[in-house]
Amino acid sequence: MALEQLGVAMQRLRRVLERRPDHGLHDDSLATARWVQGTRVEASHANGAKVITDMPTEFGGSGDQVTPGWMFRAGIASCMATLIAMKAAEEGIMLTALEVKVKSRSDSR
To answer: Helix 3-19 and helix 68-90: axis angle, to 10°?
Structure first.
């Protein structure tokens, strides 16, 4: 969706929510995680989208997939980038670039 279209959609949504705040509350899509084997897990969405995670070899995984922790950080970064783009479009701000980085530190002890 082009930023102009996104801006129009966001303005329309704001008008609806101002009239009917209760329309802003809804259940989110169910995420289902199914253990495959070892540390490999397949997460799925009701629309059929699937993501496989696994741990690095040091933790007994295959190391050939992203980790669940990385997916968590990617989800936060994607959510923030989406919200920023939506708000910018609503305000008529034309983005030329946007990058959100989420960093964490783990203690494997």
So the answer is: 80
User: For 11, phi and psi rounded to 5 degrees?
Assistant: -65, -40
The answer to whether 84 touches 100, Cβ cutoff 8 Å, is: yes
- pLDDT tens string 10-31: 888 889 989 999 989 989 899 9
For residues 42 and 54, the answer to whether their CB atoms sit within 8 Å is no
Q: Cβ distance 73 to 104 under 8 Å? A: yes
Distance CA 46, CA 44 (A): 7
Q: Distance (Å, rounded) from C-alpha 71 to C-alpha 51?
A: 9
HSE (side-chain half, CA atoms, 13 Å) at 35: 4
Residue 64 burial (10 A CB sphere; 0-12, 13-18, 19+): exposed
